[in-house]
């Protein structure tokens, strides 16, 4: 499982300061913890996790860089879209009966913070 969100949050953090930057850095840190949990889970399953976010990560970084140049609202909108995408993917995997229960349990744990991220991003967008 690959995640481009820590990378895109890193780009967005450069645009903001003060409490908004702190909020974005906190979300980024939560994503990095999620990536570590997913990598550990993949190893536990006997597979080798990807070491980077691949082509999708490069695409996401490019989109985030462009949005960051357009303004705060655009940068936050791209981050929200990334969160929504991840949320949908996790919900789909949890609903898939072919996914092992331990994996579904982990994904359920990772869904909770995403909802909080979306709320924080929405509050930030309202301020901009």
SS class: mainly alpha
User: Low-confidence parts, pLDDT < 50 over ≥5 residues?
Assistant: none
Shape: elongated
Span from first to last CA? 33 Å
Helix content: over 70%
Determine Rg (CA atoms, Å): 15 Å
**Multimeric status of the protein:** single chain
Count every beta strand, where a strand is a DSSP E run of 2 or more residues.
0
Mean pLDDT: 85
User: What does the main sheet amount to?
Assistant: none
**What portion of residues belong to β-strands?**
under 5%
- Count of discrete alpha- or pi-helical segments spanning 4 or more residues: 5
Order of helices and strands: HHHHH
Would you summarize the structure shown here?
This protein is mostly helical and 128 residues long. It is 81% helix and 0% strand. The N and C termini lie far apart (33 Å).
Could you please describe the fold and organization of this structure?
This protein is mainly alpha-helical and 128 residues long. The termini are far apart. It is elongated, with a radius of gyration of 15 Å. The protein is 81% helix and 0% strand.
Task: Set out the fold topology.
Elements: H1 5-13, H2 18-44, H3 54-70, H4 72-95, H5 101-127
Keywords:
128 residues; mainly alpha; 5 helices
